[in-house]
Amino acid sequence: MKHGQISSKELSEFIRERATIEEAYSRSMTKLAKTASNCSQLGTFAPMWDVFKQSTEKLAACHMELVRKLQELIKEVQKYVEEQAKNHKKTKEEVASTLEAVQNIQSVSQALQKSKENYISKTLEQERMRKEGATQKDLDKAGLKVKKATETYKSYVEKYATAKTEFEQRMTETSQKFQGIEEEHVLRMQEIIHSYCQSVEETHIQIGEGQEEFVKNMENTSVESLIQKLAESKGTGKERPVGLSLCCDVLKSVNNRIFVCGVFCVFLQNVPQLDEEGFCIRPENSFYSSSDSEDEDEPRKFHVQIKPVQTNNGTHQHKATIDELKASIGNISLSPTPAVRDASHQHAVTNYSLCFTTFILFYLSSNSRLSNNDLLSLDPFGPTSTGSSSSLPHSSVPPPNRPTTPLGTATIIPPPRPLSRPKLPAGKLTGINEAGRPFSPSKMSNSSPPPAAPLARAESSSSLSSNTSLSTSNTPTVGTSRGPSPVTLASLDALPIAVAFTESVNAYFKGADPSKCIVKITGDMTLSFPSGIIKIFTSSPSPAVLSFKLSNTSRLEQIMPNQQLLHSDSSQSDTNTKDFWLNMPALTAYLRKSSEQNPAASYYNVDILKYQVCSNGIQSTPLNLVVYWKCTSSTTDLRVDYRYNPEAMQPPAALTNVQVLVPVSGDVTNMQSIPNAIWNAEQSKSLWKLSDISDKSENEGSGSLRAKFELSDGPSIPATLAVQFFSEGSLLSGVDVELVGSGYRLSLNKKRFATGRYMADC
Hints:
By secondary structure, the protein is α+β, with helices and mostly antiparallel strands. The protein contains ten helices and 21 strands. The strands form five sheets. A nine-stranded mixed sheet has the order 8-11-6-5-21-19-14-17-16.
């Protein structure tokens, strides 16, 4: 029976491994299909790539369908394993009387053997005394002992007969029950294997049908059809155009020039003038004129001059160029032409004008995309005020399309000016308008976050180490712990597992408009295992599967699990929770390898999954920012308003280690600030270090940073400021974890978030 349980679990793991392999194969085929769609769409062979793509996508779908069936089968096996365990427990209680019968016959057999030996001994003693001529008195005593031994031996013989009858009856019933359990077990295993074979067979049939369809599509694609498709897609008409008339103010000013934008190039030749009948009039003194001795086959030569890219010193020049191009588009029109001979001529003229219009639009969209993508490329911690193009913190989760969806303006209410805001003496900091700033969303009663589950009792604070030294380009990481493990592991105890959630918030604030705030929040989940658990995993042929459930997953935009270690059920209907389970053989191998590399460690951390949080603009930021600059040739006035937003966190927690870094150009000679800031003359940057910010702080976490800078080479250019902070015991996503099943317990549930690139512009 015990081996039956082991076999059931091993079969479940085998099917799970097969599902993992099929899923990986399906994803690879999907990737291959995308590769086919990216192949060249030029030439006569282009339609064949569509056939390859469709066939590969169908093949990927077949294998993904097999994954779904195998996952359903795994659920059935797991359900059977649970039923099997319950049935075995019930059977153990039912056969308790058989155990008593076994123990009874064992004790009776031992007593019978002793009584037999005593009887033989007493009988031999009596015979010896007779032969030696002992007295009658001694013979009588020996006879009494023999009689007593005979009665005892006889009684145990009777007891043994009774115990044997009961033992045989009980053992027969129990053996039949055991055999029935094993027969049912084998039948259930055969049913599972039959379902497994049927799923694989159905997939093979679908793959065969897809292959037959692919072969037929290839056979039905003839050379003539490919040539015909190319002619239909690339042809401009079936009749030869007779002439072309195009009058456009923009085209008149750009004759014989080449426009280059990336790989897009449009060449506009001199448009010939037409006579009243629509025929071409050759201009005088043009290179169209030729003498009889001139070689008409000589290629024409054109002089092309491409000007170098001008350095962009600001946004005004860029905006002016875009405005001019937009105006040019608006001025493009078709001038009335003389009598056009047919519709094909008019069609050619229209296409010519649309070609140029398309080019202008392409140029505008390219510049627009460039400006949007450059928003988060600034690095205020770099050597200059404009920063370098360093990337965001490393994450497997792909960045969202910028900008994010803006908030509705109807939900934004300007907050009142804090009553206790400090004021500077007259003459020190002046020139900054003190009007209200509509930079943060109003507090809505129906938007309060649900209470998060309290953190589990920390049995060990060393399993997930903290990193309080943060930078704007790095999020806190969970490292290998140090120190002795306080957890003692026993094979029958629930094994302790620690969990850590770490999130990074990246934000860009533009002016006082909340709708221009760009937010990206990513996170990762790490499991920590004590070193003693490795011995338990390696010594057990089938350790208990570690399963857990994530809650509040509806707030996550994307989840990327560690595919080598983690499995999930993609068919779950509940969008707010998601179940995961670990590949125990792969986990054991990983922990064993980590132990070999670092045998002195008490804990080993494993990155389980990464995710990206759905953001709601400025409402998702824990600290709202607005920055104001007033720059003159001799001074620069700066004010940074901030407001604590508890609604962005689950649950609300204090922001610690808050630092604000502002680059100031113009050769600062003196700085006055409230509160006091640190000026770094080498880097030309001012730094504020603030105490913890929370709803219990002054003005409920709202305040201002103000500074006045005296310059020797002004004016300053408003730069991007950067902010860093972190928070313990809270998350921006509100995601939580719960262990599922038995065999493990959650000893520590650690939550934290920190800033990635957190910046603000005026």
